[in-house]
Amino acid sequence: MAEIRYYTNDNLTVNGLTAKAFKTTNSTASEYVEVVDIDYPGIWSSMVYVRASNGVETLIGSNVATVSRQFAGSGVQVATWNCPARTLATTDAIVITETVKLSLNSSSRFITEQLNKTNLEASTWTFYRYTEKEVVDEYEVYARFRFGGSYNSRVEGIVLSGASATPVTVNAVVAAATNAALAPAITAQQNAAITGAIADTQITAISPAVKVDAVITAVNTGVNGDAISPVVVVPVTVAVPAATVDISATAPAVSNEAKTQATSATATAQAPAPAILGAG
C-alpha cells in the first residue's frame, strides 16, 4: 500500500541525524525555509537518500521533482519522480533534502523513522510543495518552501514492503540431555538460560495448547518434566504418595478371660508336686 508522508516541523533524530520529521501524519504548526537574493527564477527540488543505521547515506534521487517560479506568487506546485526499487535493511531511514534556489540556495533536511521494511518498491512519487516567491524589488527577492500545518506539503506514492515481524522473546532453560534448536533464530544450550527474538514467520506452535504471542518462560525442574515440545520443558509437580509402612502381623489382642486362664494354667504348671509321705 502506498504511503503519504508529510514535511513537518517536528524534530526527529534517527541513525545519527537530527532533522525535521518526514512522517505519515502532518504537524499542527508550520515552518518554512527561505533564501534571499537578487531577482532570479526560484527553483525547488529534492535530493533523496537512504540512510543506514551507521549514518552512511546512499543517494537514490538527485534534484528530483523540480518546479520553478519566474514571477512573484505562491501556492502548491506538483511534480513527480520515478523512485527506483531498492533493498532495505529494517533499520534504514529515508532522508529528503529540500532545496530552495535563486542564485544562492538554502535547504532543509527531513528524515523518516527507521522503516522496519526490507524493500523500497519502484513507484511514482508525487511531490506537493507549497512554494512562494516574493519580490520586494530587483535586489531583494525571497523564495520560500512552506510546510506543516495548513500548507500540507507532502509526498504521495511511497511504497514499502517486507515488514519485519514483531519479535517474540522466549526464555528457556532446557534439560541437560537436550541441545536442539528452539527455532531457526535460537539454539538452546544445555542447562543455559537463553533469550532471543523469533520472527512470527519462524514460529510454529510450541504445542497445540500453547500459542506464542507473548513472553514464554519454561524451566525444567528435573523431576519428571513433561515436554511441551521436544525442546522446551515445563515444570511438572509430581505428587508422590506417602510410603506404605510394611508392618508385620501383630498377634491378636488377648481377652482378660483368656489371660486369666493362661495365668491359671501357668500357675498350675509351675506348682510343686505334693510331698510324698513315707510310712512310718
Q: N-to-C terminal Cα separation, in Å? A: 145 Å
| Low-confidence region ranges | 172-182, 184-194, 201-280
Counting DSSP H or I runs of 4 or more residues, the number of helices is: 1
Order of helices and strands: EEEEEEEEEEEEEEEEEEEEH
What's the Cα radius of gyration?
Answer: 44 Å
Q: In percent, how much strand structure appears in the residues?
A: over 45%
* Domain module tally: 2
Report the mean per-residue pLDDT as an integer: 76
Structural class: mainly beta
The beta-strand count equals: 20
- How much helical structure, as a percent, in the residues? under 10%
Largest sheet: 13 strands, mixed
Shape designation: elongated
Q: What would you note in describing this structure?
A:
By secondary structure, the protein is mainly beta. The chain folds into 2 domains: 2-161, no CATH class; 168-234, no CATH class. The chain has 1 helix and 20 strands. Strands 1, 2, 3, 4, 5, 6, 7, 8, 9, 10, 11, 12 and 13 form a 13-stranded mixed beta sheet that branches. A 3-stranded mixed beta sheet has the order 17-14-18, with no helix packed on it. A hairpin with a 2-residue loop joins strand 15 (181-183) and strand 16 (186-187).
